[in-house]
Amino acid sequence: MTDAKPTQSADALVQVRGLSTVLNGKTIFDRLDLDIPRGKITAIMGPSGTGKTTLLRHITGQLMPDAGEIRVDGRNVPALPRDQLFDLREKIGYLFQNSALLTDFSVFENVAFPLRQHLRLPEEVVRNVVLTKLQAVGLRGAAELMPSELSGGMARRVALARAIVRDPMLILYDEPFVGLDPIALNQILKLIRTLNDTLGITSILVAHEFAAVSRAADQVYLIAGGKVAAQGVPAELARGESPWTKQFFGGEADGPVPFQYPARDYAADLGFPEGPR
Ligand SMILES: Nc1ncnc2c1ncn2[C@@H]1O[C@H](COP(=O)(O)OP(=O)(O)OP(=O)(O)O)[C@@H](O)[C@H]1O
Q1: Domains plus CATH for the chain?
Q2: Which region holds residue 74: left if phi is over 0, alpha if psi is between -120 and 50, else beta?
Q3: Is 23 in the pocket of ligand 1 (CB under 6 A)?
Q4: Predicted complex ipTM
Q5: Could you tell me if the CB of 24 is within 6 A of ligand 1?
Q6: Could you report the per-residue pLDDT of 90-123, keeping only the tens digit for each?
């Protein structure tokens, strides 16, 4: 484990170099460097508002950085022409915490949707692919149900089947465990690991649940203050000595992430321009 020094992997599927992003005058990333190795599960952790979702949006080209490179499979995303960006996005699967299923479509049609949207495949092929993906997430028997008939955990598994329906090279999981009971959480956890290993996918997992992350992820980046504050395999990372690591994994209320939101001088706010005597 190293604090604040990213691994430089020659075989990284995603390489971020010198990424700087300012949103609404706030620096989110300050020359961030990190590598996401192929075929592994890399977790991105960090305090709320540290930019984890923003990083995912950079990887998919939904947000332009102020400076730096985000290379996905060798292609610098911010510099890609529109058509190549769309090609790249088709090789990326997403799973969000709200599952984002289409409420008027059955489970089957939700999973089939990305196939029908972009490809003209014979119905028999669509059926085989969709049922194979539903089988992989344990829900082939639920193909005809509507989203309103699913539990939260099932809905997320359907969304996962949809995320892999076009055999992506990369899956982005944004808070996949939020709101799940322990059984559903473990099912999703196991699926993330199994799909990654059996389909040879590269996975990026944004999550706050360290116990779950430490079971699923091969390596973790802790992002804080616009940079990589720490990285390593989960068990080592939690033992890190940096103030960020200690506060984050110790769950301390005050530290580099301050308890107090930045504010004017307290005395001035209370009407004592020179402070109380
Ligand atoms: N489009 C935008 N315009 C302006 N500010 C934004 C925009 N998107 C995100 N932000 C700000 O950027 C910061 C990082 O947001 P982001 O959602 O990436 O954080 P996060 O680490 O994923 O947080 P959480 O763990 O709470 O989900 C936040 O302060 C957020 O308010």
Answers
A1: 1-91+169-277 (3.40.50.300), 101-167 (no CATH)
A2: left
A3: yes
A4: 0.93
A5: yes
A6: 899 988 777 689 999 999 999 999 989 877 888 8
